[in-house]
């Protein structure tokens, strides 16, 4: 017997819809793009197309394990709850932590956040989204007063100038890149500028590639702002009535030399290329800036985000068709995680610990008098605290930080030192599960049931296709069972994902009189039937800020003075080269899922380093060489 189910891809933040034909007799599925989903209209990349090859049971974690032996859910959950309770009683709530993932569904994320911050009483819950999206979150909040992506994907078709900044979109967000390529073919006026130190596959459609020196993005965009000012291309009416801080930005630019010539010199670019880029932006009203990890993963990532936003706000190119600054999300549900407060400085429903009124609001909604009163430790600091023995117990959900976090050896040593490590995952053997005292089998894609939110704020359903493998359970269920054992049963009564979603939606509208951008309270009474049949829905409408109103106290956007800073780790005699990381086209994160599919291992079958021919000659490096030569 076969049936067809619409679901959502579990890879990048594009959030593609997938139509799946399922043969229930043998767990075989056939994947095709959902032609009605607004994120992809039937397009799929190589990873999405190969999802059917990744659901085999080989390598799956199928039973709970305690200190290496299989056991029952009851024993495993009792041990987790008793161990966390013991640590909290002895050392306090800040001695425990959760570390989540953009792979979690929104419902999973919501329960984890509520348990740790609302009832355990510590904000030590962070997520691997910290590595890719926290700079954008902070930049959005500084400029807009809220973590809001103003744009939508259809702006790709309306723009006359698209900047790809710090993003190899062709490999990291392939379906969006296909859509941009198609838009360029239809619109001969559309120009593409790639701003990236490396020449990547995204340059295939570029009219101009600015291979700027690593880390100089803020210099480039400060220079653009200066150029716009000098050429009288700022929208003075919009600046006066809808922004604040413009004079401070201009005063800051006077402290440095942002002439075209000096910007080109500092960014290691040709003067004529910088002038061309500046002129195109100055004279193209429908300008769209797409940026990703090359901006976010930086010691000054937030400032780089605001340097980009400044140029759009000062020209009034925000909230309008075909223009704006658009953060391309790395993970499938990084946006959903932000909605429910997945980062350590956040609460839920786009509220955070910087506002005591919001802490009180969430406390009353949850009936959680023990709610945390201040932000917790972000990812790197969290694992440093584990290493130092300050955090005694940690629960890691759906991610592999021993591989994915910076300074991986220290992360590995931290978990070795930790008194109690819980990992819930669908894969049995990863670098992180090897260090766990308790392993909890979580459901993977094809078994999970809930919602995710993509880069353009579109909420979609990820539906269960197959029955759970072995004893695998949903993350929200696992968390709920532990919460009940910790004495919080009344607040964690959930029996199904729709109940969690309703509460999440209700919180977004609780005492929200328009001050908070995120508000899906019209879904707070959604029925099981409507949840099951939920169609992709973009919260907040198609675009934000078309009316020039923002979520700051003054209702005006904030222009942020940015002092351009070079990377903290500059090349030196001992480390003369910069290693600029990048994602490869057919693999995802640490390959625990994509590595299973044979076809996905054909494009780039081995780890590799790309190096400029001149540097290769200098260091006596040759193609396919292992090790390194001498200077």
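-> sequence recovered:
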């Amino acid at each position: 017997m076969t049936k067809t189910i619409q679901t959502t891809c579990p890879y990048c933040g594009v959030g593609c819809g997938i139509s799946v034909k399922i043969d229930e007799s043998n767990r075989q599925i056939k994947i095709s793009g959902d032609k009605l989903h607004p994120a992809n209209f039937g397009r799929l990349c190589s990873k999405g197309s190969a999802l059917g090859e990744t659901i085999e049971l080989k390598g799956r974690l199928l039973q709970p394990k305690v200190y290496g032996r299989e056991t029952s859910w009851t024993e495993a959950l009792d041990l987790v709850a008793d161990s966390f309770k013991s640590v909290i009683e002895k050392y306090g709530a800040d001695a425990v932590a959760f570390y989540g993932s953009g792979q979690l569904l929104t419902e999973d994320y919501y329960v984890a956040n509520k348990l740790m911050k609302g009832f355990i009483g510590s904000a030590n819950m962070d997520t691997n989204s910290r590595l890719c999206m926290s700079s954008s979150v902070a930049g959005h909040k500084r400029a807009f007063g809220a973590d809001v992506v103003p744009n939508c994907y259809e702006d790709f078709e309306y723009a006359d100038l698209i900047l790809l900044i710090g993003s190899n979109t062709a490999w990291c967000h392939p379906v969006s890149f296909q859509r941009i390529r198609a838009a360029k073919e239809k619109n001969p006026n559309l120009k593409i500028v790639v701003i990236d130190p490396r020449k990547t596959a995204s340059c295939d459609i570029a009219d101009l590639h600015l291979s700027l020196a690593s880390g100089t993005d803020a210099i480039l965009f400060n220079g653009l702002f200066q150029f716009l000012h000098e050429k009288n291309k700022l929208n003075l009416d919009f600046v006066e009535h809808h922004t604040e801080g413009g004079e401070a930005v201009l005063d800051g630019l006077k402290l440095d030399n942002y002439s075209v010539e000096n910007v080109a010199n500092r960014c290691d670019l040709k003067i004529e290329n910088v002038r061309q880029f500046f002129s195109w932006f100055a004279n193209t009203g429908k300008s769209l800036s797409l940026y990703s990890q090359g901006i976010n993963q930086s010691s000054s990532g937030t400032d780089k985000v605001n340097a980009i936003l400044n140029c759009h706000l000062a020209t009034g190119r925000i909230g309008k068709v075909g223009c704006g600054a658009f953060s391309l999300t790395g993970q499938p549900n990084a946006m959903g995680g932000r909605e429910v407060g997945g980062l350590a400085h956040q609460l839920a429903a786009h509220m955070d610990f910087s506002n005591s009124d919001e802490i009180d609001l969430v406390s009353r909604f949850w009936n959680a008098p023990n709610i945390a009163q201040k932000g917790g430790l972000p990812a790197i600091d969290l694992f440093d605290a584990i290493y130092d023995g300050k955090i005694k117990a940690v629960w890691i959900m759906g991610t592999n930080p021993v591989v994915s976090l910076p300074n991986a050896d220290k992360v590995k040593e931290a978990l070795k030192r930790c008194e109690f490590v819980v990992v819930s995952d669908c894969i049995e053997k990863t670098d992180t599960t090897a260090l766990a005292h308790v392993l909890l089998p979580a459901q993977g894609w094809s078994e999970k049931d809930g919602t995710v939110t993509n880069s353009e704020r579109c909420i979609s359903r990820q539906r269960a296709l197959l029955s759970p493998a072995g004893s695998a359970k949903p993350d929200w269920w696992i968390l709920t069972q532990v919460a009940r054992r910790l004495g919080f049963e009344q607040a964690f009564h959930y029996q199904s994902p729709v109940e969690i979603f309703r509460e999440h939606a209700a919180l977004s509208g609780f005492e929200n009189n328009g001050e908070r951008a995120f508000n899906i309270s019209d879904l707070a009474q959604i029925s099981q039937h409507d949840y099951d049949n939920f169609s992709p829905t973009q919260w907040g409408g198609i675009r934000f800020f078309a009316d020039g109103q923002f979520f700051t106290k003054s209702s005006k956007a904030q222009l942020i003075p940015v002092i351009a800073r070079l990377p903290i780790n500059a090349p030196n005699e001992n480390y003369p080269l910069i290693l600029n990381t990048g994602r490869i086209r057919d693999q995802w994160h640490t390959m625990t899922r994509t590595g299973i599919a044979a076809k996905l291992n054909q494009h780039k079958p081995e780890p590799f380093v790309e190096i400029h021919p001149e540097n290769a000659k200098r260091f006596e490096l040759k193609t396919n060489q292992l090790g390194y030569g001498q200077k």
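The chain has three domains: 2-54, 65-129+339-534, 138-330.
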